[in-house]
Amino acid sequence: MTRSYTLKRRAEQQAQTRQRIAEAALGLHSSIGPALTTVSMIAALAGVQRHTFYAHFPDERSLFMACSGLALERDPMPDAAPWREIADANERLRTGLHALYGWYERNAALSACVLRDAEHHALTREIVALQQGPSMAAYGEVLGAGLDQKRRAMLGLALSFFTWRSLVREGGLETEGAVAAMAQAITNKN
Length: 190
Description:
Structural class: mainly alpha
Number of helices: 10
Radius of gyration: 20 Å
Strand content: under 5%
Shape: elongated
Distance between the termini: 76 Å
Number of domains: 2
Number of strands: 0
């Protein structure tokens, strides 16, 4: 009886340590970005030795998957499936942009660092494509149905985190104003 209790307790401690390491990595990825985050920084923040870090995450990819998984578990990207049910294309577009811009607002610090690093850090780019790519493709498919090439290009611009940041953080628009501006730019018949 004591042995199974000890094994269970040890497994719980290992899970807590792994969680602490992933939390530390997520915090650093949100503040300085994945490209500048080192194992030593994560280990120090998590309160573990480097060998403990490597026991839980043998390579950088496994850490990035755990870190991005933790972030998306806490706040998943919006699901495009319900938008398909919205018959009016303009309402569907506004609903989708509003949901995505809300997600960007809640995840601005992490998104800014991760997407910046994805420009020059191959593993970050790979994980972003793996974790966010399917959702972004679904947004393009659902919101872009029936759009011509020019409007699809504008939709791509509207879906970008950097567009959201330019409109809201730098341009001072509220979410509603940013959604309205991009919806108008996409649906404008001129």
